Amino acid sequence: MSQAMARGKESGQSCTILVVDDDEAMRKLLVDALQEQGCRVIESESGKDALNILKAILPNVIVTDLKMPGGGYPYLRQLREGAPYCPIVVMTAYGDSQSKAKVLECGVEGYFEKPLRIHDLKTWMCQMCLVNPCGNIPIL
Predict the structure, then answer these.
(1) What is the number of H-type helices and E-type strands within the chain?
(2) How far apart are CA 94 and CA 66, in angstroms?
(3) Is the residue at 71 inside a domain?
(4) 101-113, pLDDT tens digit by residue?
(5) Tens digits of residue pLDDT in 49-98
(6) Which of 40, 43, 48, 73 maximizes the CB count within 10 A of its CB?
(7) 16-53 as b/e, with b when 16 or more CB fall inside 10 Å?
């Protein structure tokens, strides 16, 4: 878990989000946006690292890239097995209808193509938190 870093305020956070992306700039953008919502964010730069994190921490929501080291469809299936009740959203710069269908077959609840609109992701997160209450993400 050396690549993962827990970030955010230490108190008052009841929603934990795992952000997985090998692009450091994208990861930082997501981490900052979600921390602004009052969430505890754990970040990972690879699929392998994310799966190791799941052995120690069960997040409320997982936001992950698809094409990255240790990523892909087998990785998504392993995420689903490791966190069977956790909403998962996939972001990809390589989106098409066939990829989207395969992602959804892996048990993923959300799918966004990059470039990602942060507002859209926040809206999705709020909807997931209404369905699976996980803490203090305010309604936008």
Answers:
(1) 5, 6
(2) 9
(3) yes
(4) 999 999 999 898 8
(5) 999 999 999 898 999 999 999 999 999 999 999 999 899 999 988 778 88
(6) 43
(7) bbbbbbbeeebbeebbebbbebbbbbbbbbbbbbbbbb
- Report d(CA 126, CA 130) in Å as an integer: 6
Domain limits at 39? 5-131
Residue 117, exposed/middle/buried by CB under 10 A (0-12, 13-18, 19+)? exposed
Residue 84 lies in a domain: yes
95 is a domain residue: yes
Question: At 36, is the pLDDT very low, low, confident or very high (cuts 50, 70, 90)?
Answer: confident
Alpha-carbon distance of 23 to 105, in angstroms, equals: 25
